[in-house]
Amino acid sequence: MFKYSLLPLVSVFIFINHGLLAQKVNEFPKKTDPLYKKVEMFDRLMLGNHWNEGAIMQHVIFPPAGLERPIIGSQADCLDPTSEMLAAYSHKYAITGDPKDRKIANDIFEAVLKLEKVTGVEGLVARSFNRTNEPLWHEEVFWYHEWHQSSSMPGYRWLGDLSADKFTSIFYGVGTFWELCADDEYKKKAAGLLDRFIGRVVDNNFKLTDLDGKMTLWGNFCPNLPHQELNSLEMLAALKVTHHITGKERYNAAYHMLIDRYHYDDHQINSKIIFPKEWRNVGDDYHAARSLYMIMRLETDPNLLNKYRMNLNRHWYDWKDLEFTWESNIWFLMVYKVLTGEDIFTEEKKQGIKDMWGFERNTREFKIPQKDGSFKLVRSEEEQTAAAMIRNYWFGRYYGIIDEKW
Amino acid sequence: MKSYLTLLTFFVHILYLIGQETPTPPEGMVYVPAGEFIMGSTYGDPDERPQQIASTKAYFIDQYEVSNTEFAKFDPTFKFPPEKKNNAAVVTWSMANAYAKWAGKRLPTEKEWEKAARGIDGRVFPWGDTYDNTYVVWDQKETRGTSIAKPASPYGCYDMAGSVWEWTSDWYKPYPGNEVPMEQYGETYKVMRGGSNFNNHSFIRTSQRYYVLPEKIHVYPVGIRCVKDID
C-alpha cells in the first residue's frame, strides 16, 4: 500500500526533473514588454532550446516524448528557421560588429555545411539531421519517411527529399551571411557551398535530385518539365546570387539561358496566384519575398528589373491588405519598402511590428508508435519557432525600419 | 454532294461497327480498348526510360478513385471524418487489393494505369501537354472530383493527375532496356501513380513513377482505382 501510494509522487518528481534538465531556458517575455526585450528573450529560448549542433529546430518536443539531446520534433522545415537565424545574426553583426554575434552566425553556417556533409554526396543537402544511431519515433509520423542513416558521419541520421522552399532558404540565408557577416575564410566556404549545391541542381537539368537519383517531390525547376511560376523565380534568384558570390560564369550563362531560351523572366511574373482568392498562399509568398529580395538588389538590367517589379506588384496587391497574423508576413512589407523605397508603414503597421511575438510553450499528447505496431499516448511540452520574428527585428533594425527603442 | 453523302454513310457505318464492338462498361467504369500505346518518357526521371511502345488487352477501369464511403461498404470499421465522405480513401496496398477483390475487380498494372491516363499518343497529362491549375484538385483538404475544370482522360477517367496517388499491382522494377541502376528496384516497393495534391506539377504527369512500401505509406496519400477484365 505504502509503495504504491508513493508512485504518483515519484512520477511527478521524475517528470519535473526531466523538464528541468531538458528545458534549458524557461524564461518567457511578457506581451507588454518592449520589442527589443521580447526579441532578446526569444533569442535566448531559440539558442538554448532549439539549437541542434548549430541547426535550428522548427519544433521542439521536450521529454518524456522528446529526448534530452538532441531534442526532437517535426524537422522537415528546419532549414527555414536555420536560415532565418543565420540572416538574423548576419544583420545583427552588421549593426553591432560584435565578434560574439559573428561567432553564432558562423556556427549556424557550419551546421548548413554539416547538412551537406551528412548526406555523403557533394552538393546534396539534407532537410535536417539528428545525432542518433537508432531511428527516432517521430520519423514514423512526421512528414514523408525519407530518413537515412549517414554513411559519411557515423552516428547521425538525416532527412532527405529537399524542396524548392528549402532551396530558397539556403541561397537566402547563405547569401545574406556572405554579404553582411562572413570574413574572408567564411566567404570562401559560403561560395564553395553554393557552388556545390546550386551546381548540382544545374548539372541535373535544374532538378533537385535525391539520393536515389529521382527528382524530389518539390524539387522541380526544370525547363523541360511543367513547374510552378514561383519555381522559375526561385531558380533565377539562386543563379543570380550564386554568380554574384562565386564569380563563376556558368551561373550567369545558366541564368541567361533560362531567360533567353525558356522565358523564365516572363513565367516568374505570375508567381503570385491572385484568383481564385482561396488559392492565395502566404507560405508561397514567403519564398517569393526572399527570392525577390535577393534578385532585385543584384539585377541591373532595367528590363529584367521591370519584370521582377511586376511580380512584386502582384504580391503587393494582396500584401497591402494583409493582417499581421504571422511573423513572416510582417517581413513582406519590410522587403517591399527596402526594394521600392515607398513609405508604406502606417502607425497601425508599426504597431504590428512592435507587437511581434514568438511562441507559447504548449502541452499536448503525442501518439508515439511502438515496436508492436500500437501507439502510446505521451503528454509533453512543445515549442514552435521564433526565428522569423528575430530575423524581422534585425532586418528592420538594419534597414532603419525598426527603432532600437521600440 | 453525292460523294459527301457516300463518305458520311461510310463513317456512320464505321462508327456503328465500332459501337457494336465496344462492350458496355459496368456502372462507374469506362472501356479501354486493346492495343498499343506510348509508355514512359524521354524527359522525366531515369526510371521512366526507355520510352517504348507497350500494349494491353481491353479492360474496364473506374472513372473515379474509390471514395471513403465506397471503401466503408467493404470495411465498415474504416473511419473517416463525415465531411470527407466523397474524398478518396487513403489505404495501404493490401487494403486496396482486398477492396478490389471484394468488388470483383483488381488493381491495374502500370501499363493499364498509364494507358488509361494518357491514351495512345504519349501526352504529358490526361488532357494534353499543357499544365493548368484549374484542371487539378488544388485544395489540399479535398481530393476526387473537385477541380474547377474537369478534363477527362482520353477514355473518360477523372483525377488521374493529382487528387491522391493510385496503387498499381506492380512491384517497382526497371522497364526492359533501362540500364540506370536503382537499389530500390525489386520486390520491396509497389508503384504508385498519378501524384497527389501535395507535390510539384511534374509528379502528376502520366508517365511519372513513384515507389512506396506497400504496408507503410506514412503520410503519402495513396488511393484506389480498380480495373476489371473483359470476359
UniProtKB/TrEMBL annotation, chain A:
GO terms for biological process: carbohydrate metabolic process. InterPro entries: 6-hairpin_glycosidase_sf (IPR008928). This is Glycosyl hydrolase family 76. It comes from Arenibacter troitsensis. The lineage of its organism: Bacteria, Pseudomonadati, Bacteroidota, Flavobacteriia, Flavobacteriales.
UniProtKB/TrEMBL annotation, chain B:
One of its GO terms (molecular function) is formylglycine-generating oxidase activity. InterPro entries: CTDL_fold (IPR016187), Sulfatase_Mod_Factor_Kinase (IPR051043), SUMF_dom (IPR005532), SUMF_sf (IPR042095). SUPFAM superfamilies: C-type lectin-like. Residues 27-74, 90-228 form the Sulfatase-modifying factor enzyme-like domain. This is Formylglycine-generating enzyme, required for sulfatase activity, contains SUMF1/FGE domain.
